[in-house]
Specification:
There is one protein chain. The chain has helices spanning about 1-20, 25-45, 45-60, 65-75, 80-135, 235-245, 265-280, and strands at about 140-145, 150-155, 165-170, 180-185, 195-200, 205-210, 215-220, 225-230, 250-255, 260-265. By secondary structure, the protein is an alpha+beta fold. The strands form two sheets. Strands 1-2-3-4-8-7 form a six-stranded antiparallel beta sheet. Strands 6-5-9-10 form a four-stranded antiparallel beta sheet, covered by helices on one side. The chain is rod-shaped and about 120 Å long.
């Protein structure tokens, strides 16, 4: 019967092609014809051949095709030994199909997670790059050709030593940057003969003393006298700088042999300290 149907389908296909039937209808008939051929071929297989085909597809990990042949075997040949084997194989096939589906779901989920992670990473890198640009934009930059050092200081930092101030700056040669601390006392009248510097940050007192003799320096400038400290700072001084930048009130007491002078750190100075810290991190520095 199927042979007759197939022959009829072929004749009908030839007829429709010759009579100018729309291509979509022709394609549909071709598809139906191919399915008929496939069904006819499967009908002509013995139970052993069907089981062999199912095993072959199983070994090739084409579990959908293997299941298709096993379903034909079980439906057509109920009481055959091959059918019993086919039922056992079908359980394995269906387990494999479920396992593959789970794996595909997991893979799809992993792909989605990777995509989301990459998007977040790109966003973070973009934000980080923007922060670097913003931090560096607030700096005055000067390159020392002799020492091959690039110096960064806040745009608002004083270039005049004829005033009392606290400020920081950054030096960078090849790899990691470093921070320098500069604390300056200026007077039109008399020398302090500076011995130590006390910094009170919101009630907490920190002392800065000479680490080596002669670290406190003194000299005359136009209009008066200055005494100062200028050095590369360590981790604890970086943390002190951070505290000053975020403080409500910070006072610097310059303690000399016979007198003292106290200065309140301004909001502008605090902002400048924070800008330098931000640029320091942006340039690859670490607070730890």
């Amino acid at each position: 019967m199927k042979k007759i149907t197939l022959i009829g389908g072929i004749l009908l296909l030839l007829f429709t092609v010759s009579c100018g039937v729309p291509q979509a209808d022709v394609d549909k008939l071709k598809k139906e014809n191919e399915e008929l051929k496939k069904e006819l071929a499967q009908c002509e297989l013995t139970p052993t051949q069907i089981l062999d085909q199912a095993n072959t597809f199983y070994d090739q990990t084409d579990y959908t095709k293997s299941r298709e042949y096993l379903q034909i075997l079980i439906a057509k040949y109920v009481d055959y030994d091959e059918t019993k084997k086919g039922k056992q194989l079908l359980k394995k096939v269906e387990n494999k199909i479920l396992e593959t589906a789970r794996t595909n779901r997991d893979n799809d989920k992993k792909v989605e997670e990777d995509i989301a992670e990459n998007i977040q990473k790109e966003k973070s890198e973009e934000e980080s790059s923007q922060k670097v640009e913003e931090a560096i934009a607030k700096m005055k930059i000067k390159y020392d050709i002799n020492d091959a050092v690039t110096w960064y200081s806040d745009s608002s930092s004083s270039v005049s030593n004829a005033k009392s101030y606290i400020q920081t700056y950054i030096g960078k040669k090849e790899k990691k940057p470093w921070i320098g601390l500069s604390v300056n006392y200026f007077s039109k009248k008399k020398w302090l003969h500076l011995e130590r510097i006390e910094i009170t940050v919101d009630g907490e007192i920190f002392e800065i003393e000479e680490e080596t003799p002669g670290e406190f320096k003194a000299g005359k400038v136009s209009g008066g006298k200055r005494e100062w400290l200028d050095r590369v700072i360590k981790k604890e001084d970086i943390l002190l700088t951070e505290k000053i930048a975020s403080s409500k009130t910070t006072k610097i007491k310059f303690v000399g042999e016979d007198d003292v002078y106290t200065k309140t750190v301004s909001k502008t100075e605090k902002k400048a300290l924070q800008n330098v810290l931000d640029a320091f991190i942006a340039l690859g520095g670490s607070m730890n």
